[in-house]
Design brief:
Blueprint: E1 10-11, H1 15-20, E2 24-28, E3 31-36, H2 41-50, E4 52-56, E5 61-66, H3 70-77, E6 90-96, E7 102-112, E8 115-120, H4 125-136, E9 142-146, E10 149-154, H5 158-164, E11 177-178, E12 185-187, E13 196-201, H6 203-214, E14 219-221, H7 224-233, H8 249-252, H9 260-265, H10 271-280, E15 284-291, E16 302-305, E17 310-320, E18 325-333, H11 334-339, E19 343-347, E20 350-357
Parallel strand pairs: 1-3, 4-14
Antiparallel strand pairs: 2-3, 4-10, 5-8, 5-9, 6-7, 7-8, 10-13, 11-12, 12-13, 15-18, 15-20, 16-17, 16-19, 17-18, 19-20
Helix pairs in contact: 2-7, 3-4
Amino acid sequence: MADTETGELSNLPLKDLHEAAGARFGGFAGWSMPITYPLGVLKEHLHTREKAGLFDISHMKLFLLTGPDAAKALSRACPIEADALDESQSKYTFFLNDDAGIIDDLIVTRLGSARFMVVANAGNAAEDEAHLKAVAAEFDCAVEPLDRVFLALQGPAAEAALANAGLDLSHLTFMRGIEPRNGWFASRSGYTGEDGFEVAMPTGEAKAFAETLLEAKDVEWIGLAARDSLRLEAGLCLHGQDITPQTTPVDAGLMWAIPKSLRERGAFIGADALRAAIAAGPARRRVGLKPQGRQPVRAGAELYDGEGRLVGTVTSGGFGPSAGFPVAMGYLGADDVSAGRPIFAEVRGNRVPVDIHPLPFTQHRYRKG
């Protein structure tokens, strides 16, 4: 994380590799991150869709939860049936506050009967650690934050490139994870909508592994800018923009991640507030938005109906290189979504017409079987 006294950004362990590759850096969640490489955002985006993109996601945080009550602790901290997960099964879930607002969204993987890996977002790492440790203190288990280099390899050539680098994960299907080597963690998952993998490893082993991956003709470094356009096309939320502690899973359209039995009887943090939100129904809804024309609509743009009434806000927006048109996500009043009235986004004093568009904008290509 950034130094709280100096405000300085933390550097990635593989910074030298990124500099050698010609990365342009920028600040994100307290880290100095590669934003683009010489290929440029458009080509980086399309390369990931067509071949394999390598992302350094070491800013994200991994927590290892172990002990006899590890599953019970997770089931208290998250709306998840941790003890019902199969070994190697991964599950998308959340930390909720008492109002059922999303503190963070997470991926939890069961690695053994009393061993779980939690992958959290960089911007919430300190809060997540404190939250998880506070919950775990009531149970017989331990939380260990891990210092790892974390790489994501995404795209149709990812599996072959990993195998050629000596890590054959072809037996994994989407949302499955294992510990393939001592100190390593790998899952078939990602943030692009493509088939791909996320692999964490000790810092001392990371440079050689990354260099081996990059020897493949189909693998290129991809920066944060293309990661954002890829996840937006895939309709995936960014915490801090599309979901926040003021957003419930009901409004965000993420109730699919919470088992029905837990919605009704779960004892996780925020359960009562979530049940109240379910009973009341969403006041607003997260929707896909397609601006008419070629002008992108960015996060923060206000949404109006034809009578000039403020009806919502854009939370993420940009151009979708694979979709071939501008793409965005945002929130509209639930009544406005169902009414089908014309919607306009305010862009530099102009009202740009936008259409509600199904999510995702590009088809997911996960390896599910």
